[in-house]
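FIELD: query
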Amino acid sequence: MSSQRRKSQRHVPRALPLVCAAGTLAAAYHDVAYANVQAPSDGGNTLLHAIGWQTFENATPGDNNSGIADTTPDSNSTFDATPVGSFAAVSGGGQYLTGTIGAGASVLGRAGYGQSTNNGFLNGATFGSDTIGSAPFGMNIVDVPLADGSAGARIGQFGQAGASSWKFRTNGSQEFGDFSITNESDFTFRLERFHFDARSGNANSPTDLDLIYLASGDSNLVRVSTGTEVQDLHVFTALNFATQPSVQNVSASVAASFTTPTAVRLGPGETASFRFRWTNSGTDFAESQIDN
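FIELD: result
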């Protein structure tokens, strides 16, 4: 399916949980989808779905320093072999949620620095937290079906060939990375969590990382409490790295990021854009990385 926004507003049922994360994105959806997140990673919610990246594609093929441009998340439980609603006639099926990193993910399309293929860090067995099935509700990668609907599998594992992470450096805009989720369906999703692992790479690397909302362009993520769009630059989660190198495995609640906790929804045909923002580095060109 195309990642373009779709305007169809037919068959809008009740909102159901969606989760999003960036080295991964996770979501909860509707029981019409072909596959869903498996136990124990579903935390008892059989409607939970997830979409996310295990590997990252260079903006310029073969150039690991060209930023990331990737519209093919490896894991995506919203694949449906026999889609319903507007996409009932799609031959071979498709995904109800699609994702984009870099160009096309936002107005500016920040792409970070590129891809790290170092298999000596990150590239673990979970999306986000290592705690599965209870708070903060990380996910086993193998519990999230692949984007073609097949059983979940790890791609690019720690210590093996094919490892991949999204790298950043403090030079111009290369410390920023944008990603988006688009709801291609006629249904409404509720954004639940972001899952990712972040690494501050060395003594000069940034000590702070936050994940923010971008309200410009096509982005339209709506607060249930007010019926209005989430405020531009709203911070969903903020991290501090007291020592370097060090890694934090994050599964962050979306609702809890608001002063008064509230659910947020992504309606039919709508897109939500987000940015990773590294700050407070010791020197220019200091690297950091993010993955699942």
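FIELD: remark
The chain has no helices and 23 strands.
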